[in-house]
Specification:
By secondary structure, the chain is mainly alpha-helical. The chain is built from nine helices and two strands, in the order H-H-E-E-H-H-H-H-H-H-H.
Length: 211
């Protein structure tokens, strides 16, 4: 039994390492395509929803609408500023501001320093990949395919696309899976509730998990 447990732990570690390396590789690939390896470029801030006056000079813009990461970046710079426009970036719709979970974590880890926050946003994505792999491995029944399934969960297309683009899907999934694990395996209702709350505050679609 002990040998089986050790083997299971080894396989889980393998899945976590593989997921973390893959997520980091995606981020590095996106950084290589950005302006002088500028992590602020990962958010894909578009000219449609941003204006150079107000936007930090070191945050690059791309032509067009940009992508959702720009709104998470804007919140991470100051998660307590819910004005429609701040730091030169304007929310396209009202549901952007409540998606505070991921930006708040980045703000905390970055100590409120925008130059550090652009790096912590990428770091959180890498950690989320590892958490998805670890929690999936813990929730799946013993199987020779568990390692591969755990890696596949972390590198699911929707999450793989999110790494390196400052998107919240992997973070929300990691929190939601953590909540399920806390409830199913440890019956830690309070911990599960906090994690699920964090998931919902990251992406409101995680309410499906709560339901």
């Amino acid at each position: 039994m002990h040998e089986l447990t050790v083997e299971a732990q080894t396989r889980t570690r393998l899945a976590v390492v593989a997921a973390v390396v893959a997520a980091a590789a995606e981020i590095l690939a996106q950084l290589a395509l950005s302006d002088h390896w500028n992590p602020a470029g990962l958010a894909l801030v578009g000219t449609v929803f941003s204006r150079r006056p107000g936007l930090p000079s070191w945050v690059p813009q791309i032509r067009g609408t940009g992508y959702d990461g720009q709104f998470f970046l804007r919140l991470a710079f100051d998660p307590f500023d819910w004005r429609r426009t701040a730091y030169g970036i304007t929310f396209d719709t009202g549901y952007r501001a409540p998606r505070i979970g991921y930006p708040f974590l980045a703000w905390i880890l970055g100590g409120g320093d925008p130059h550090v926050i652009v790096w912590t946003m990428a770091l959180i994505e890498v950690v989320a990949a590892g958490v998805i792999a670890a929690t999936t491995a813990a929730l799946l029944p013993p199987s020779k395919h568990r390692t591969l399934l755990s890696i596949s969960a972390a590198l699911y297309e929707g999450y793989a696309f999110s790494y390196g683009r400052d998107l919240a899907e992997p973070v929300a999934a990691a929190l939601a899976l953590g909540a399920v694990l806390a409830m199913e395996r440890f019956h830690a209702t309070a911990v599960a509730t906090l994690l699920l709350l964090g998931a919902v505050l990251t992406l409101e679609t995680e309410l499906v998990v709560a339901g």
